[in-house]
Design a protein that fits this description.
single chain; alpha+beta; 2 domains
């Protein structure tokens, strides 16, 4: 009988963003950057912070601190976020000393992953006149309290979505 995976308490405080609690011990993930944006992130206790967020082609977005942005700069040889789009990064968990204690923190490797580390996954194409499209619209309308990029990351991870359809979904999210 398999044991159900336990959930870290922090997964409940901000489930919209990737955290150390999302990784198994010793796990490293290769993620491809889709976009980098600055936006408001609501943390523990409803505290609002202006943060830099990396959105990936799959999975949850990740709040980037200065340490991780410097690591991406080293890994890809450019401090310009526009140059990071389409690039892959390797993310893992390290223990760091902060705020007078030891914490698990996400860290980006300063070395870019080799191409063979990437395993492309084929996603179905989302079509406007489909049951799936209606489900995505319904989902986004239920996410009005969230920034579109955060809400959109779920459907974007599941489906291949054209730029035109993305714009239409963004409009639906605003209605």
């Amino acid at each position: 009988m398999s044991e159900k995976k336990k959930r870290h308490y922090k997964s409940m405080t901000n489930p919209d963003y990737l955290g150390s609690w999302d990784f198994d011990k010793g796990e490293s993930r290769v993620l491809v950057i889709n976009s980098i944006k600055k936006g408001e992130v609501i943390g523990e206790g409803g505290k609002k912070d202006e943060c830099v967020v990396a959105y990936f082609t799959t999975g949850l977005p990740m709040v980037l601190n200065v340490t991780n942005m410097k690591a991406i700069t080293v890994a890809h040889g450019s401090p310009y976020i526009e140059d990071w789009v389409g690039k892959s990064i390797s993310v893992h968990v390290e223990q760091v000393r902060a705020f007078g204690d030891i914490w698990d923190a996400l860290r980006v490797s300063t070395e870019a992953p080799v191409k063979s580390d990437l395993k492309p996954k084929s996603k179905p194409i989302l079509k406007k006149d489909s049951e799936e499209y209606d489900k995505v619209v319904s989902f986004l309308k239920g996410q009005k309290d969230k920034d579109f990029e955060v809400a959109f990351s779920g459907p974007n991870n599941k489906y291949k979505i054209s730029a035109t359809l993305r714009a239409q979904l963004e409009n639906e999210h605003k209605l």
